[in-house]
């Protein structure tokens, strides 16, 4: 009987969202779904930035983290490869993604754009559209509007066909048109406003039955809701009193560019921003990103956006929850949800307790009460008296009191466990095949590209062409080649002096080969994509071949008229001749698009035989323009895998024809400023808490497990400038340890008994959970008392219960997760009575 009841409940909960249309509307306070105001936590997960095999667990991890809604962009240039040629397979299977969200019982926000920015190549707009004559993006331009409407309609129809809109019983509760256009609308002059109004009108006329949003669109016309994107949105107000206050992008970290430092946003500050938003009447908040993922292949924008789009998001690039960020936000979501009914159905009373100290108190007609108390001081902790009770608030923090009495959460007091994550290198496992008789050694095969034109030139022209106009982004690579004649009587041939090559480029990167030898490499960076250099070179008497390999590293993805930003060489001069500088800019240049290996598809299983690979035990090192191929077994275990490229130069990698993407272990400068420890207090900026000075911005490149077969995997690397392939490793991302610590009197959600709706003292508990199915194998450290240090470096303080370890072992060993209540376990409570005691635990999972 009980079984069949729970079974039918299960079936009901499975099919409910599938069968019944929901009525999504809004008022000034929130979205209203079937007559209920909703307070919603949303999470950006972009389907092409992971693989279908990861989607269910990513979405499940988001759900467990207290998320109600998944938000994704739609990536036009991944779907419409050429006009009317649509692609929805593999990572681009949008329908499958939405289905998984629906099955998880979550809502979805579909940000169609179709311009999306998103650090995605060309902002998501197909490059071919730029070459449709008379097209200007994102303004009152007939061509752009035609193609934008066509694609938007295509996606809307696809979603309607699948009954994905909430109005049809599906998960989509909101849809977005355009993206952050309000910030640049004025730059487009007379074309700006009419375009924005047209976009809104065009969207509304799609009749999707759920509201449309436009983010950062200050003039969004009714009924389209304008929403906020920022690190903080508590001060945001929508452009009409009938629209709810919604936050489409809260950035819990930041993206990275090759050669830059590693940004971090502390969880205390993210939680502070979110709590402030709901304190000040917000009703829907989205983390951009909740899982950032990977810019596989050539999908990253920029230029110079790394292949990793980890974003320091609550779920890391590899799909593992990032602690303590994920856990702290989960606790926050729980606390906020406890206030949902009261805050959405009453008006706040504002109380100022003095400078930087304020509360918003929501009391409904039934007498239910919820309060947010904030200390926005950037330095000092403060104490306030609220309803005759004294509350301590750390600087830059918000306390949440779902009953106006008990603090269940303070944004600056992290209770969640932390985790130590390592990339554990594994030797490449040679794969057994018929040609590989010695089972222990890797068999490498090598193919070397020509420096310069291979085969026939694509065209010859006087002067330097624009790189992007020429390749139209069919490849990163464009050869500019010419030759010069050097007389024997040139002074630099006799004296020790050297001629100097001067190059100016609109971007993004360059390798200069002279007489087939790589003599200079140069590139722009995330702050200035153009570059120029002067570098001494070697020339010989007679004919000299100048072959310049120009490269794009992800196309511009945002900014006014971004599609017109050029790339490639703009000036080439050689100085040091007897007759003065030799200006080559207007010489006759021969051009070749792309590499021979690219043309022949030698990184794909069906193209691999298109060149003659040279077998070798000892692959050449530090050799430019080299393709490497090796057959591997999958790494052991089931942890996520990253390709360690720290000993390589720059290039691209593939596994079994799947595009891992661009690698470039480019280092940031040792002279930059980095922080030891990030102070969460005060306004966050992307450059506030940087680490990794002098380190490669990206060392590991995610290779999804689902791309591996057990054996016979083909790894192909194209190295541009030279590296040591024997040092390539597949590293496994492992949680080496988990830690948690908690002090007596720490606010705790668990101290709130939902069933009885009362506060139970001393229920505060340390919670430990190993990833996946791993279990707690060892308690490395446990101390109830006054332990010191942080995860990985805990030590016993002046006060310590010697039974701590055995008590924790009893509760936790061999379990996937455990909780140890400070109050209930038999810790020695008599220990040093004057001290505030805490429990710190470090455990090893296996
Ligand atoms: C949807 O809800 C709104 C208000 O919340 C109401 O006015 C409208 O009649 C509802 N529509 C349907 C089809 O139920
Ligand atoms: C606070 O204390 C004062 C004096 O003790 C009392 O009059 C008042 O009712 C109390 N207020 C609340 C909200 O408990
Ligand atoms: C160098 O050689 C070129 C061509 O052979 C000649 O025209 C020129 O006068 C020579 N210059 C000198 C300084 O000898
Ligand atoms: C980027 O390049 C420009 C121009 O070469 C240079 O001035 C600037 O310092 C570089 N910035 C970084 C972060 O390396
Ligand atoms: C091609 O490049 C040149 C130089 O950057 C630019 O002026 C021109 O507008 C470009 N054409 C297109 C269609 O982008
Ligand atoms: C430690 O545990 C033992 C046995 O379980 C008990 O006899 C002893 O009193 C405990 N010590 C402390 C300091 O609590």
UniProtKB/TrEMBL annotation:
Entry GO MF terms: beta-galactosidase activity; carbohydrate binding
Span of domain SUEL-type lectin: 760-846
Gene3D superfamilies registered for this protein in UniProt: 2.60.120.740, Galactose-binding domain-like, Glycosidases
PROSITE patterns: GLYCOSYL_HYDROL_F35, SUEL_LECTIN
Entries under InterPro entries matching the protein: BetaGal_gal-bd, Galactose-bd-like_sf, GH, GHD, Gly_Hdrlase_35_cat, Glyco_hydro_35_CS, Glycoside_Hdrlase_35, Lectin_gal-bd_dom
Gene Ontology BP annotations: carbohydrate metabolic process
SUPFAM superfamilies on file: (Trans)glycosidases, Galactose-binding domain-like
Cellular localisation: Secreted, Extracellular space, Apoplast
Signal peptide location: 1-21
Family label: Belongs to the glycosyl hydrolase 35 family.
Protein name per Swiss-Prot or TrEMBL: Beta-galactosidase
Source organism per UniProt: Cucurbita maxima (Pumpkin)
């Amino acid at each position: 009987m009980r079984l069949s009841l729970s079974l039918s409940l299960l079936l009901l909960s499975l099919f409910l969202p599938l069968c019944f249309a929901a009525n999504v509307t809004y008022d000034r306070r929130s979205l209203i779904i079937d007559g209920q105001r909703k307070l919603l936590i949303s999470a950006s997960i972009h389907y092409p930035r992971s693989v279908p095999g990861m989607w269910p667990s990513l979405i499940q991890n988001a759900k467990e983290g207290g998320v109600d809604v998944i938000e994704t962009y739609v990536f036009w240039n991944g779907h419409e490869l050429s006009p009317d040629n649509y692609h929805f397979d593999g990572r681009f299977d949008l329908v499958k993604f939405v289905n998984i969200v629906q099955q998880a019982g979550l809502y979805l926000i579909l940000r169609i754009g179709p311009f999306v920015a998103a650090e995605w190549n060309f902002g998501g707009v197909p490059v071919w559209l730029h070459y449709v004559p008379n097209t200007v993006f994102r303004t009152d331009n007939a061509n752009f509007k035609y193609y934008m409407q066509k694609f938007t309609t295509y996606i809307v129809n696809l979603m309607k066909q699948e009954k994905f809109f909430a109005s049809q019983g599906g998960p989509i509760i909101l849809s977005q048109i355009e993206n952050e256009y309000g910030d640049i609308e004025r730059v487009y002059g007379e074309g700006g406003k009419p375009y924005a109004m047209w976009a809104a009108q065009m969207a509304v006329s799609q009749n999707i039955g759920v509201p449309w949003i436009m983010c950062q669109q200050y003039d969004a016309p009714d009924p389209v809701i304008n929403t906020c994107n920022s690190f903080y949105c508590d001060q945001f107000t929508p452009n009409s009193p009938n629209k709810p206050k919604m936050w489409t992008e809260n950035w819990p970290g930041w993206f990275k560019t090759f050669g830059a430092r590693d940004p971090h946003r502390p969880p205390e500050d993210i939680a502070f921003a979110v709590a402030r938003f709901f304190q000040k009447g917000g009703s829907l908040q989205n983390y951009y990103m909740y899982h950032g993922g990977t810019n596989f292949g050539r999908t990253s924008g920029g230029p110079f956006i790394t292949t990793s789009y980890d974003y320091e998001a609550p779920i890391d690039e590899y799909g593992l929850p990032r602690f303590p960020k994920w856990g702290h936000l989960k606790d926050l979501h729980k606390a906020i949800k406890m206030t949902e009914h009261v805050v959405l159905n009453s008006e706040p009373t504002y109380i100022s307790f003095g400078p930087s100290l304020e509360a918003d108190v929501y009391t409904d007609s039934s007498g239910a009460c919820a309060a947010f108390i904030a200390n926005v001081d950037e330095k000092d902790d403060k104490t306030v008296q609220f309803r005759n009770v004294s509350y301590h608030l750390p600087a830059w923090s918000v306390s949440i009191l779902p009953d106006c009495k008990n603090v269940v959460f303070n944004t600056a007091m992290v209770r969640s466990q932390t985790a130590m994550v390592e990339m554990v290198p594994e030797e490449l496992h040679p794969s057994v095949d018929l040609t590989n008789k010695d089972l222990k050694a890797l068999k490498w095969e090598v193919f070397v590209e020509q420096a310069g034109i291979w085969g026939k030139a694509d065209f010859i022209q006087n002067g330097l062409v624009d790189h992007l106009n020429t390749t139209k982004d069919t490849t990163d690579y464009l050869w500019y080649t010419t030759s010069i004649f050097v007389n024997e009587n040139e002074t630099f041939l006799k004296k020790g002096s050297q001629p100097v090559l001067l190059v100016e480029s609109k971007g993004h990167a360059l390798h200069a080969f002279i007489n087939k030898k790589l003599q200079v490499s140069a590139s722009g960076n995330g702050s200035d994509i153009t570059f120029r250099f002067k570098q001494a070179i070697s020339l010989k008497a007679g004919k000299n071949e100048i072959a310049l390999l120009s490269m794009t590293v992800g196309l511009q993805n945002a900014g006014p008229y971004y599609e017109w930003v050029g790339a490639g060489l703009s000036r080439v001069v050689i100085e040091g001749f007897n007759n003065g500088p030799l200006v080559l800019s207007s010489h006759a240049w021969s051009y070749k698009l792309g590499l021979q290996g690219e043309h022949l598809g030698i990184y794909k299983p069906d193209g691999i035989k298109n060149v003659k690979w040279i077998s070798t035990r000892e692959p050449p090192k530090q050799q430019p323009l080299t393709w490497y191929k090796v057959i591997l077994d999958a790494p052991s275990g089931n942890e996520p895998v990253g390709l360690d490229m720290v000993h390589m130069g720059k290039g691209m990698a593939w596994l079994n024809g799947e595009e891992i993407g661009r690698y470039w272990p480019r280092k940031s400068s040792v002279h930059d400023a980095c922080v030891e420890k990030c102070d969460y207090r005060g306004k966050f900026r992307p450059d506030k808490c940087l680490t990794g000075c002098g380190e490669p911005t990206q060392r590991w490149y995610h290779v999804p497990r689902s791309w591996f077969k057990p054996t016979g995997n083909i790894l192909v690397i194209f190295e541009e400038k030279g590296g040591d392939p024997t040092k390539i490793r597949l590293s496994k991302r492992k949680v080496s340890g988990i830690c948690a610590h908690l002090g007596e009197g720490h606010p705790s959600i668990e101290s709130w008994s939902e069933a009885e709706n009362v506060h139970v003292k001393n229920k505060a508990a340390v919670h430990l959970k190993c990833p996946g199915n791993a279990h707690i194998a060892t308690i490395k450290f446990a101390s109830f008392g006054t332990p010191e240090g942080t995860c990985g470096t805990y030590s016993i303080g002046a006060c310590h219960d010697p039974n701590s370890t055995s008590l924790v072992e009893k509760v936790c060993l061999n379990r996937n997760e455990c909780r140890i209540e400070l109050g209930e376990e038999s810790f020695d409570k008599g220990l040093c009575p004057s001290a505030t005691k805490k429990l710190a635990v470090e455990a090893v999972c296996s």
